[in-house]
Structures are given as structure tokens and as C-alpha cells.
Amino acid sequence: MNFSLGYLATGRFxxxxxxxxxxxxxxxxxxxxxxxxxxxxxxxxxxxxxEKLGAVSNPxxxxxxxxxxxxxxSTKNPQVILVADAxxxxxxxxxxxxxxxxxxxxxxxLENGLLLKATGVEIQIDGKPVGTVKxxxxxxxxxxxxxxxxxxxxxxxxxxxNESQKAGKPMVETNDFLQKVxxxxxxxxxxxxxxxxxxxSMLESGNAQPVTYTVQAGDCVSCIAKKxxxxxxxxxxxxxxxxxxxIKIGEQLDLTVLQPMLSVKTVETRTDALEIPLGVIxxxxxxxxxxxxxxxxxxxxxxxxxxxxxxxxxxRLVEEVPIDETLVEAPIDKIVKQGxxxxxxxxxxxFAWPIYGAKLTSEFGKRWGxxxxxxxxxxxxxxxxxxxxxxxxxxxxxxxxxNCIMIDHQNGYTTLYAHLSKIEVTxxxxxxxGEKIGVMGSTxxxxxxxxxxxxxxxxxxxxxxxxxxx
Length: 470
Ligand SMILES: [Zn+2]
Prior knowledge:
Layout: H1 5-10, H2 14-38, E1 40-48, E2 51-56, H3 59-76, E3 81-85, E4 89-97, H4 103-112, E5 115-125, E6 128-133, H5 136-148, H6 161-165, E7 171-177, E8 181-188, H7 196-205, E9 212-214, H8 221-227, H9 232-238, E10 252-254, E11 264-276, E12 280-289, E13 293-297, E14 302-313, E15 316-329, E16 334-341, E17 359-362, E18 365-367, E19 370-372, E20 375-378, E21 383-385, E22 390-398, E23 402-408, E24 413-420, E25 422-423, E26 430-431, E27 436-439, E28 451-457, E29 460-462
Helix pairs in contact: 5-7, 8-9
Bound molecules: zinc ion (ZN).
Zinc ion binds near residues 376 and 452.
Protein name: Peptidoglycan DD-metalloendopeptidase family protein
Pfam family, one: LysM
Keywords: Membrane, Signal, Transmembrane, Transmembrane helix
């Protein structure tokens, strides 16, 4: 039987054949499409700086790995903030038939090329970098610590009198660095991050080289200061054990001059309570004798509150200006009454020599078993003067005394002048201190020209030399 295709194609069954082939082809197409569909893979190609590293299922895989890496780093290095840098990664998405994904191989390649970078905060003084620390908090902490050294206790001043009387509790107004201080965030190598202590020391000492000196014979604090061309203050500050400038041979002195890079300017207000001294008012009183006085009112010092604005640089006073003054209590003047009344003949209570250039020949005291009640003097000048103001109560001859004058000074004292050759006053006469009353002589019981002079106080004999300057 000739069973050719031509026959089939042309035979009576041809429609059946066509339909069978057609349905077969359709079946194969649909089946194939399902197979392909089932074997298509979604993936992300990973490129580092343009170089293809491989394919991952999702960029999230890389991100999670990086985050994990970051956590590990910060646990291992708490002093430094490290950043894991995998490089510039790009991803390209694709969907391909039976494509390969290998997350761990991509991560492995990234791990090998991982860069560790530190982040830090650089402290700059007037634009000049001083050091880099871990973070802003650390930098701020160093600056605050330096500032706080020059910040007195922040206390609010109580304005009551009792509080203000307590001396100077300063109140800080401002507290600033004189230099421009900036903090700049930087990325750097981990080894460039320094400790806060190192940066603080740099800021405070300016990297000064330590200088020590051994005290030698003949040294003194100011001599050493001069020798090294430094201030004595530096020596006292660095060597606080020195007391009263006392240094011994062989002792070690620290002469390091710090050059702080930062200066703290503090402006404070301080309130002081100051005494206002009282004044004294003198009132003349003509009912009181001249030379006497009497306190009428004691008076009282006043009180004022003065507010000063005090400027300090690194704790050293540079300016102090009074900015406010309040009177708390006005002073009360002391009042003194002074007598002006002059009474002629009233003694002052102090005595002058009754002769010029007196030469003592016999003193007051026991003489030949008897009291010599006065002082004997001689002088080439024979003028006799009253020793104080007074009133003549006797002027004449007296047994043993010869020509004699007695003067009552009307203050309890009486004086006596004896052996005069001449009396020049009369009984009852008012006499001034230093006024001539007679002439020296040798009348009465006398062996030569001299003055016998007596002082009585309330009727009792006194040694005249007690009252006369020698
Ligand atoms: Zn005598």
C-alpha cells in the first residue's frame, strides 16, 4: 500500500492528520512555556567600582551583612567609632533562565576588600587642628572641663542684707574662650583618633617641654625667675610646697612654662558689703573750759553694697569695675563738744620750769634727816616765772623761805617759789604761765643764790621733777 504523505495530505483523512499535528504542536508549545517559566531566576548582579563580583538574591543580604559587621566593630573598639566601608556598590536586577545565585561568595569577596574608616571630631583653635577625638560629646566634654576650672560656684546671690554682708559670692555672667573654637566632623584613619586626656593636655599646656631645676647655693625664687626669664608666679604655681620663699640647696623646682592654647575669659559680678566710715562733728561750747571735750554721740559706721564686674582670664584678675552701689545704712556722725571758755588763772595741769636753763643742785627728798620739800636749782638767768596759770595767794617774807611767792593754780595744785631777791607780784593777782613773778636771790635760810621750788597737790608735797621735763 502506498502510504505516502502526499496521499495523507491529499487523502480522505487529511483533515484528521492536520488536526492531530496542530494539537500536538500547541501542546508542546504550552508545555515548554511552563517549563521555562518554572526555571526563570530573579537575581541582582553586584558590581564594586564597576567590577562584577557575582549575583545575590537581594541587595538586602549585603546590607544586613554590613550592619552586622558594624555592630561587631563597635563592640570591639568602644574608643573609636569605626565605619565598615565595602566600597561603591551598584546592583543590577535581572531575571534569567536557570541563573546562578551565590550570596556567600559575593560576601566573601566583599569581606576581603572591606575598608575600616574612623569617624571623629577634630577640635580646631583659631582654625588650627589640635586633635581628633571620638565624637562631639567627647570634644565638648574636654572644652567644658577646661572652662569649668575657671568657673566659680554658680550660686544665686541672695539680696537680703545678711547675705550681702557675706563677702563676695560671685555670680558668673559669661564664660567664654578668647579663641575661636570649632568642632569639625572628619573621616580619618582609626590611629588618628586620640584620647581626650591627650587633647586636653595639649590645650592646657600647649605641648610645653618640662623644665626642672636644682636649687644651688645663693639661689632665691626671684633670682631663679630672672635667670630663666620667667615670672616668679610660675615658680610658685608649679611648686606649691614653697613657703615664705624658702628653698634649700638640692631641691628640685618645676620651671615649666605652660602655653595654654585656650584662654577662658570669665565675667562675674561680685557684691561686697563695705563700711562707710562715720564723720566727726565738733561743736564749740563756751560753757566748757578750753582744752576739755565731751562725746555727745558715739555715732555709727554706715554700710553700702557695691556690685563689681570682675573680668578674669584663666582665673587671673584683669579688671574690676564697680557697676552699682546701694546704700544699706547711712553712717551716723560722731558729735564731740569742745570747750572754748578761757578762765584766767586756771592752771592747765602741766608745769613749765620756773627758770631758764635750770641746773639742779638739790633734789626733793630726805636731807639731814628732814624732808627737803622742793627742788633747788640755779641758773645764770635769775628771772623767776610762774610754772602754770594761777592766782597769787602769798607774796612776802616767810620763815626760812625768805622772799616767797605761792600760786594757786585752781585745779588742786599750788606752787611755791622761795629765797627770791625781788617779788614782782601781789597777793590775789592772776598770773599767766611763763609770766615773770620775781628775781632769784638768797633770802631766808640760804647759802647761795638759788630757787627753792615746791609743788603741792591737794595740800601734799610732790616731787617737782615728776612734773617737769628734764
Ligand atoms: Zn630748797
